[in-house]
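Margin note from the TA: students keep mixing up input and output lines. Inputs are the sequences; the output is the structure of the whole complex. Example:
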Amino acid sequence: MDGETSTETRILGAADALFYEHGVQSVGMDRIRDAAGVSLKKIYQCFPSKGALVEAYLRRRDQWARTALEERVARHTDPEERVLAVFDWLHDWVDGPDFHGCAFINAFGELGADSAGVAHAVRDHKAAVRGYLRDLAHETGAADPDRLGSQLAVLLDGAMSNASITDSPAPARDARQAARTLLREAVAPGARD
Amino acid sequence: MDGETSTETRILGAADALFYEHGVQSVGMDRIRDAAGVSLKKIYQCFPSKGALVEAYLRRRDQWARTALEERVARHTDPEERVLAVFDWLHDWVDGPDFHGCAFINAFGELGADSAGVAHAVRDHKAAVRGYLRDLAHETGAADPDRLGSQLAVLLDGAMSNASITDSPAPARDARQAARTLLREAVAPGARD
DNA sequence: GACGTGCGAGAACGAGCGTTCTCGCCGACG
DNA sequence: CGTCGGCGAGAACGCTCGTTCTCGCACGTC
């Protein structure tokens, strides 16, 4: 038996790294085979096509991102700190060496117009994150948690894009500060600092 | 004489529409030839390679977006209204039928890691927009116009991505409202509404 | 009218892709 | 020990792509 990590996990891990760094269409199956160290036949018996592998890649990213986010938020109990923890998590992530923007925005721009499966996976992920942010906003007692949740989602996506393009974590810091301002204004309009 | 529009403009127009809607790598030169109604030979004597056409596409988009943005802002004289006009322009744009997110974020996700030319064009565009937003922020008398400009850039990019993925102009409205809150807080901290 | 010349349509070429097939090997089982 | 079945390496196949070439046609000049 294959001791440590299952074959499927190895394939997905290699595909994830390559798709995320170079984009989906720039990466061929041969490159995934080389990176995963498995045969092409094994890839095709785990995933019937490249499209299926791409959708599995997106599902895996979705699970990873939301789990990591929730774990970071769970370190805090104060509602405002829980919202800000989202941007602290973002800051740590974008500052690492293997950050290349939002995999979902990238995949959507590349394939969303022509692949219903990709478009669906991206919309599901973004809706789930927005729902989570709305819940965090609700905890704070904000006047309009729906709107605040959407605004936090906008900040999150914009900060990811900007951090990737400028290759700097500064947008995450700016987004965090913006989130704090929006949050305080939504909870106690016009309050003193 | 070629009557109306020059050949180069026709090619660029067709390439722009196709690249922007479907992504760069999904669109072949044949499709651009069909859409532009010119011969493949003419395309290659205007642009020496597909890469050159892609960079011309990005330069054209940069010019179009910044010009349209500045014209919309120029309708107003009040500094706060000038900042908000950015998001009004965004709202009108994303609400139209031919909006497909930010062409620069999409191109960067698709090609930025492997094409220095694309990465450079994208960084230049984003830096120019951020600089423009910083200038608008400066006009308002904000305490830290650099930071406010960056925050507006984050809102702009995030709203574009979210509007594209959710296929709705709501993120533009949310971003506009967030911009107003950030702006007022940056100009007069803790002021009453 | 003869001739060169630039042009468009489409074939051609070489490379790369996703996917499948071939073949030689090795371990399981009677 | 003989046979069979699954496996990996890599070739093969059909397709698409970026780029170049061919060929036939229309047109300006003597």
